[in-house]
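ok so I'm stuck.
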Amino acid sequence: MNAWYLICFLSALAVFIAFTNQYILKMQTTIAITTGSVVISLLLILAVKMLGDGTALFITQIVADIDFNQLLLKGMLGFLLFAGALEIDLAALKRQRWEITILVLFSTLVSTFLVGYLSYYLFALLSFPVPFIYCLLFGALISPTDPIAVLAIIKQMSAPQGISIQVEGESLFNDGVGLVIFTTIFSVAFYGTEASVQDIAELFFTDAVGGIIFGLVIALVGHFAILHCKDVNTRLLVTLTIPSAGFALANIWEISGALAMVTSGILLGNITRASASKKYGPAGTRYVKDFWHATDSFLNALLFLIIGMLIVTMPLSWEIIGLGLLMVPVVLLARFISVGSPYIIFKRYRKYDKHSVKILTWGGLRGGLALAMAAAIPSDQIQINGMDLHDIMVIITYVVVIFSIIVQGLTISPLIQKSIQAASAEKNSGL
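replied:
not stuck anymore, here's the structure
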């Protein structure tokens, strides 16, 4: 067996979990697959630690040989972000463009530094001296939110559009911005990039602005190509070249492929799809939308199972798991402050759902991107109390993400229901 075979088997397992979930657990699909990956990881750990199962050891060796930086950050991420951006409603996004822009830029940066400082002092208090730059790196990777699970719940419950577009728009764009912040801090931490404010700002804006401009360019090329393709299959293939060749080219040029995918996805999902529907009819574009929706769900499912397998290869200890659990309230507090503070100003100019901050805080789930960034941290370079920094970051991130998706994901519904009731009451009183 090799890594490719393992990915094939994990893909089949993800589909099997999704299939059985609709009859047994009946959870939201991402939550079900995340729960399944945790159970499978625990069983495999038990097999390795207690039974010494040769097959399990063989699988963990294969997983340990996978280059997660290439597979996740340089590969799957482009497809995930592009697929998610295709679903964005540009008209609704425009109506809340200032709120989303501030949440994406201000809140992501504030959360990064809050988590960095709080985790630094907490680690030091517990005699676990992690240098500040790596605490800041953890803040950068854990601050971006994942739209997949909570958005499925929001849409399923028909939450008010104002809440839905805030969560959706912020989640997609802060993925791109968060990755730029992570890359910038990563360069300082591991490549010795000069840590002056000017150099960091230059690196950040070159990465971010370059990514957005490149996204506009490939969206323009894709728009032209799709509208001039007579064959429906060729139109689908054109969309596939963007998160594959386009994302690869952005990485080669060292600009933000994440922001490029988000930018191009939003433009193609709104402008190009509308134009193509007029030219070819709704049936001529519906299959593209369905294909990318299925691809998005499939890759997220596969990602969680792969990361679950990665955890098996690491030296787990109650100390690191405990640190991960302590990081949960730290991350939630940083999220509440970074999201809640802009709303103090927002509410002076526009009326919002009174549950907005609560939903954005508790519904700001962490997911695949955080795990991918943690897995990309180099191994065997930094040791903290005799443990590899790579292993520490991945395990702590895994604990926070699992709590986020399973606990927060399963308990966000009552908040959304209150928002629906408040919106209904306001509408009735207006009548």
